Structures are given as structure tokens and as C-alpha cells.
């Protein structure tokens, strides 16, 4: 049983868990909720976006740029599969 290394990294797992519970979340919300640095959060988002797990939306709120994130269907499936695989590992003790 192999765990998806993209999802398994703790910060990315936390990002995906947050996004699974909301329609979308902006950069500032994720930053304050997760306690990551700007660069660290950006790098994790890049990894998730590259994997097709997160969609990045860039807009403006008035004159200020706003970046928000959504979990994609692929990301939702990957998260579900991750938890299912983890349950199998816990039940069987096999990795």
C-alpha cells in the first residue's frame, strides 16, 4: 500500500483538508490558519497545483489582487484515496 507523497506531506495534507471543507479559501486565510511563511505556503500550493489537486484563482478585490484556492475533483479523489489507504495500513499493519 503506497501513500501519495504529495498528499502525505503534513502541510499539504492540512491545506487539502481545509480546502475540502470550504468552497474556496484565499491566501491570507490559509496563511493565518496554517501558520506557514508566505514562501512555504506558496511552494506547497505550487506542488498541489502541479499535481492537479488545487485550482488557483487570481482576481482583484477592488484594486488589490486576491488569490484564492479550490480543491479540484482530482484533489478530492486523491484525499479520499489517501484516507482509505491509511485505513488499510492501520487495519493490516502493511505499508
How is this structure best described in words?
This protein is α+β, with helices and mostly antiparallel strands and 95 residues long. It has a single domain, classed as Arc Repressor Mutant, subunit A (Orthogonal Bundle). It has helices at 5-8, 10-20, 27-34, 38-50, 73-92; strands spanning 25-26, 54-61, 64-71. The chain has a three-stranded antiparallel sheet. The longest helix is centred in the C-terminal third of the chain and has 20 residues, at 73-92. The model has no long low-confidence stretch (mean pLDDT 95). The relative contact order is 0.21.
β-strand percent reads 15-25%
Number of helices: 5
Write out the strand line-up for the largest beta sheet, numbering strands in chain order: 1-3-2
Sequence stretches where pLDDT stays below 50 over 5 or more residues: none
Order of helices and strands: HHEHHEEH
Approximate helicity band:
55-70%
What kind of sheet is the major sheet? 3 strands, antiparallel
What is the residue-averaged pLDDT? 95
Q: What is the terminal separation in angstroms?
A: 5 Å
- Which structural class best describes the helix and strand composition? alpha+beta
CATH superfamily: Winged helix-like DNA-binding domain superfamily/Winged helix DNA-binding domain
How many β-strand stretches? 3
What number of structural domains do the residues give? 1
Write the CATH fold name: Arc Repressor Mutant, subunit A
What is the second-level CATH architecture? Answer: Orthogonal Bundle
Radius of gyration: 14 Å
Amino acid at each position: 500500500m503506497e501513500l501519495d507523497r504529495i498528499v502525505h506531506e503534513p502541510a499539504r495534507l492540512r491545506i487539502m483538508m481545509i480546502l475540502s471543507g470550504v468552497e474556496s479559501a484565499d491566501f491570507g486565510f490559509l496563511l493565518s490558519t496554517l501558520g506557514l511563511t508566505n514562501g512555504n505556503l506558496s511552494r506547497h500550493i505550487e506542488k498541489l497545483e502541479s499535481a492537479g489537486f488545487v485550482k488557483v484563482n487570481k482576481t482583484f478585490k477592488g484594486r488589490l489582487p486576491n488569490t484564492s484556492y479550490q480543491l479540484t475533483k482530482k484533489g478530492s479523489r486523491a484525499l479520499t484515496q489517501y484516507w482509505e489507504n491509511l485505513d488499510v495500513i492501520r487495519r493490516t499493519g502493511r505499508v
